[in-house]
Design goal:
alpha/beta, Rossmann fold, three-stranded parallel beta sheet, 11 helices, 7 strands, 13% strand
């Protein structure tokens, strides 16, 4: 079994989901008392968020690259960024290490195409929806990507940062996000990517008639395939 390096803390709720899912996945695949070989480097969410808001992406890259290098020194065979928004600096992080970085957008795009979905909606933080660093990576695989109208971004962002990162799951917020999924369907999406780990705490496949592609679940499955393969 390979050792999985996880750069987390963005948010710690998201990292906890990754850690649990990796271990549950190994137990399901291997049985018995098997668990995942995981190294976790958890950064200060307040620090990297402040740098993000200041658009100091070189500093963000430096923080995450240092975390990745620590994981590599510790014996990680490959690295995951347990976040969507901070994939903005994924290329810089990947360049700072000699082990692979398993890019989330590549994993999700492959999952969409495997189900025959070529037109997808994307939900995430305002930053991830309004910038093209993630959606363009998806599009490079041949996907057409739809995002909610700009006026919806603030409410989705509020739900993520004021509720979900604190572990609060609110029914009214679930209805709000499901309504956005339905609007993306109307816009031509054949499936919707839940492009933020915290959104998976709120919305499940049972809430939507469209296929949902939960980024964390897919990222974890790809990591397990690599680690156990």
């Amino acid at each position: 079994m390979q050792t999985i390096g996880v750069i987390g803390g963005m948010s710690w709720e998201s990292s906890a989901v990754y850690y649990e899912a990796l271990n549950v996945g190994v137990q399901e695949r291997r049985g018995g008392l098997a668990s995942a070989r995981v190294l976790l480097s958890s950064v200060d969410f307040a620090e990297v968020t402040a740098l993000q808001e200041a658009e100091d992406w070189d500093a963000v890259a430096a923080v995450l690259a240092e975390a990745a290098q620590g994981l590599e020194r510790g014996g990680a065979d490959f690295v995951l960024l347990a976040t969507t928004t901070f994939h903005r600096v994924a290329d810089q992080v990947a360049a700072a290490i000699d082990v692979p970085l398993l890019h989330l957008a590549d994993v999700v795009a492959e999952a969409c195409l495997a189900q025959g979905v070529t037109s997808v909606g994307f939900l995430g933080t305002t930053f991830a929806m309004s910038r093209d660093f993630f959606t363009s990576r998806l599009a490079s695989h041949g996907l057409t990507v739809h995002v909610p109208d700009a006026e919806a971004h603030a409410e989705i962002n509020r739900i993520i940062y004021e509720e979900l990162v604190a572990g609060r799951v609110v029914d009214a917020s679930r209805r709000t996000v499901v309504a956005q999924i339905e609007r993306l369907w109307d816009a031509g999406a054949g499936g919707v990517i839940l492009g933020c780990t915290e959104l998976e705490l709120l919305v499940r496949q049972a809430d939507s008639e469209l296929p949902l592609f939960p980024c964390t679940t897919l990222h974890v499955a790809a990591a397990l395939d690599r680690a156990l393969g």
